[in-house]
Amino acid sequence: MIATELVAQVAATLQQGTLAAPEPKGINTEGVVTFFASNIAPILLAVLGIIFIGRASRGEISKVLTSSAIAIVGLAFIAGAATLFFVGDYIIDLIFT
Questions:
Q1: Kindly report the CA angle at 31 between 37 and 49, in degrees rounded to 5?
Q2: Helix 61-96 to helix 41-57 angle, to the nearest 10 degrees?
Q3: Whole-model pTM?
Q4: How does 37-67 read in b/e, with b if 16+ C-beta sit within 10 Å?
Q5: What is the mean pLDDT of residues 74-95?
Q6: Backbone dihedral region of 95: left (phi > 0), alpha (psi from -120 to 50 degrees) or beta?
């Protein structure tokens, strides 16, 4: 009984066509970026702040100012990259629509 049901199911599947593989699932990149922005980035900024305060308390003000300037320039580059992403998306939409 079980063998005949199995043969009937195989025959029905072969008549419908080949076995279809399930469609692959994509990676949720928005979730990854959101997780990084909400959890990892604040921790890294807090660590930088603690390092800067520690250096400033030891009298290394010039190193703190240099490191702070480098961090600000890095944040500006990141913001610029995000801005270029949106500007590029706008230009592509403008050209191809």
A1: 15
A2: 150
A3: 0.46
A4: eeeeeeeeeeeeeeebeebeeeeeeeebeee
A5: 84
A6: alpha
